[in-house]
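# nightly structure sweep
# worker-07 picked up a monomer target from the shared queue
# config: single-sequence mode, recycle default, output format = structure tokens
# input follows
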Amino acid sequence: MTFWLSIYSYIHRILNGIMKQCVLEPILRDTLEVIKPLREDWAVRSKIIEELKDVIASIESLRGATVEPFGSFVSNLFTRWGDLDISIMLANGSYISSAAKKRKQNVLREFHKALRQKGGWRRLQFVPNARVPLLKFESGRQNISCDVSIDNLQGQIKSNFLFWLNQIDGRFRDMVLLVKEWAKAHNINNPKTGTLNSYSLSLLVIFHFQTCVPAILPPLKEIYPRNVVDDLTGVRTVAEERIKETCNANIARYMSDKYRAVNRSSLSELFISFFAKFSGISLKAADLGICTFTGQWLDIRSTMRWLPKTYALFIEDPFEQPENAARAVSAGNLVKIAEAFQTTYHKLVLANQNRTSLLGTLVRPEILNCIAGTPVRNLSYTSLHYQSTHRQISKSMYSSPQVQHQFQNMRQEKHQKIFTAQRQEKHPHSSNSQYRVQNTRLEKHPSYLAKQGHESHPENTRLERHPNYFAMQKQESNVNTSTRKKPAQYYHGQGQQLWRPKSDGQGHFL
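# output follows
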């Protein structure tokens, strides 16, 4: 009898787990459809970069300086409402150098003054005494938050690395976007209030992908075996090319390994195990630090490069060792962070959880409304096209309970087919594939929307269309023609050009 009870219990747990994934998987996919950036979100940020270049050009003392984006925009890990990080690279010739803190403060003061004179920028805030002096403001027309720093080459290189990791597995980007949204929903994604910054959240996802079984990502030392910031010396182009070539070779070696076990977990399985792994983080944090360079929990007292400083939570920056990416987290907020992990995990594994209850745990109310068919308002920049399209979708889909029920069934069926196909698909990489690390040095893409049909799409990456401008295209194609895409001028304005990664035109990025 005990034997059969054990078998019954085991089968019950398996079936219960499958049912949870069938409910969670479409929820995660629907969330991604809402938060992934659209074409106009890329266009808006491109326009802001051009405007900031004009401001820099108007400052005589900054002649020769360049405006270079970095952060989530460059790593392709930003949501529709993500901030824009900008580095003003001063004219230092071809060699890598960094201005003294006093010089950075003075440059930002001049830039602050120029922005005020130019107009069109709001909530300007100069933060001179931060570890990295910053100028923060919002674009007046689209409400995009911008953080400007000086000579932040380290930030640009880190962004490149995160971008390159997308080549190994596309689930990495999806997980980062979902975790960021979850963290915002629980108010634990703000270093100014003592919680996690977005970079730390990305490192947590990397660590999860390194330590799941089988592993999805390798220890980062297998991609670049040295401390990256130590190699940012000499001629800039030479240093950047040397780092890229090393990563290129090591990523290719890892991806073409015939004997590497392939992780076929669905996104929902990875999502649940992520929260299971970190639900006890407050207990571990006193003794153990998270090291993505080695892909291991490390004992803090035995890791000499981490001493003698003490932190509530230690997540080492793998590219700037031994800096702590989570240094802003306070002891009190670590408890809050751990509770958010625990409560979310318990909800994910609890039986009889419905869609609305799970969504309320994973996303902010504004996003929840948008998933339900109501446009997002007052969150940040939202295009008129996006609002009008969703009004039409809402009107047609939710006009009656019967239609709504039918639509939900169709969407559930669609996602179930996707979920089943993902579990059965073969490993997409073969040993004779040629892999090339994508370069994130950005250039203008002329006549981007002048092409028609499939030519209007950016080149495909190995895992998904990059940079995912067309997340909503399938949805829009089924909507009444009155809600179809507007002409190019609607998104970009006359003569405006779009930033995107540099390509050789054959699907490879240089």
